[in-house]
Amino acid sequence: MLRSSLLLVAMVMASSHALYGPGDDVVVLTPSNFHKTVIESNELWLVEFYAPWCGHCKALTPEWKKAATALKGVVKLGAVDADEHRGLGGQYGVQGFPTIKVFGADKFKPTDYQGPRQAQGIVDSALSAASSMVKSRLSGKSSGGGRSSGGSGGGDQKDVIELTDANFEKEVLNSEDMWLVEFYAPWCGHCKNLAPHWASAATQLKGKVKLGALDATVHSVMASRYQVQGFPTIKMFPAGKKGSEVVEYDGGRTSSDIVAWATDKLAENIPPPEVVQLTKQSVLSSACDDRQLCIVSVLPHILDCQSACRNSYLKTLKQMGNKFKKQMWGWVWAEAGQQMELEETLDIGGFGYPALAAVNSRKMKFSLMRGSFSENGINEFLRDLSYGRGSTAPLKNAKLPNIKTIDPWDGKDGVLEVEEDIDLSDVELDDIDKDEL
Fold it and tell me: In this protein, which residues make up the domain named Thioredoxin (predicted)?
């Protein structure tokens, strides 16, 4: 009896966390079925990335289910628990919940859904997207499917770099980048199955990890050097100076598996980000441009917080940078009062120093941390932001502030400037006329 009760409670708890189930017309998507179900399909898909705790997601759920039923047989609606499957959400740049993506003719380039959140509006938007996809096919612009047209097993997709015996050393071994290299054979069935996943992963990892493909039946020198005995064989070459260390790829064969594995390995191998003082405009640009977020801290004036105090704050920021290095954010700091335009833009200074804000230069928005400037406080703030929970505000004038060019901190304690005493010995005060009262 007790066992049955516990089982019932477990089932109720599980169902209370899942917004969608087998009885719904919404397809439950996970890393294991996403590529085959969505990417390789010919249908139009609308996919919701949600978190079970998200209030807006809960409000959308009945509308999403109603729309899925209405569109059954016409357009597919799916849902991904992106809180559980964060890697899958990360592949598509999901930063808040719910996020809805439209997978149309080109499944490797989904678009953001910006339409209504009621069933009728969802249905209307889906039918409009379906009509556009059909017209595109009719004009011959797209085949509509998500399968790779190449059958060689890799190397013919634009983001997959074709490797040979001749260019391998230059492209891979002399590179500072992390590489994943597929050694394949044109006749290999598993290689052909891997091809679209490899191409998709290469696109998603662009700018972070390079993916290459080498036909081992033609370029046997490199295949022999790395002891390739079966196809496909995938090897990882770590970031930085390349030595003899080569890591065997032991992850899954879907694009989501490849991306997740590569991202984890990249985080293990890349050094923690530098926490750089804002001494000129280019420092802010380097930290914020082309990054998801840059973390800006304003530390107390050196006279209010001497070198030991300041270094303790910088140590905390470096620890946080190391903890969140997988996100590849930028990290900068300034002294209170040195970059006033920055402080005004980020509403910093009204409640004391140190202060911290996260800036999204792509959307020209920022979020100001209200909690304690401590390891726990910063961790909670950044964690909430990464889950889409934090509140944001637009940057003033919709642009990054101007940074004054200053000398960098010399690492020393601050010294209060003392004004020289004025010598009054030569002044005869008795000779000064006095006004009578």
Answer: 5-132, 152-267
Q: Do domains 16-138 and 160-269 have the same CATH topology?
A: yes
Picking from 116, 212, 77, the residue whose alpha carbon sits closest to that of residue 157 is 212
Question: What are the structural domain ranges in the chain?
Answer: 16-138, 160-269, 275-398
- Position 27, amino acid: V
Q: Is the pTM of this model over 0.70?
A: no
Q: Are the beta carbons of 64 and 97 closer than 8 angstroms?
A: no
User: What is the CB neighbour count within 10 angstroms for residue 128?
Assistant: 11
CATH assignment of 160-269? 3.40.30.10
As its CATH architecture, domain 16-138 has 3-Layer(aba) Sandwich (3.40)
354 preceded by a cis bond (ω within 30 of 0): yes
In CATH, the architecture of 275-398 is 3-Layer(aba) Sandwich (3.40)
The structure tokens listed for 34 are 């996403």
Is the separation of the CB atoms in 117 and 60 below 8 Å?
yes
Is residue 126 within 8 A of residue 70, CB to CB? The reply is no
What span, in angstroms and rounded, lies between the C-alpha atoms of 2 and 430? 103
Q: Which residues are catalytic, by number?
A: 54, 57, 188, 191
* Residues ≥6 apart with Cβ < 8 Å to 349: 298, 336, 343, 355
Do the beta carbons of residue 28 and residue 78 sit within 8 Å? yes
> For the chain, how many residues are written?
437
- Give residue-wise pLDDT tens across range 154-208: 333 689 999 999 999 999 999 989 999 999 998 998 999 999 999 999 988 888 8
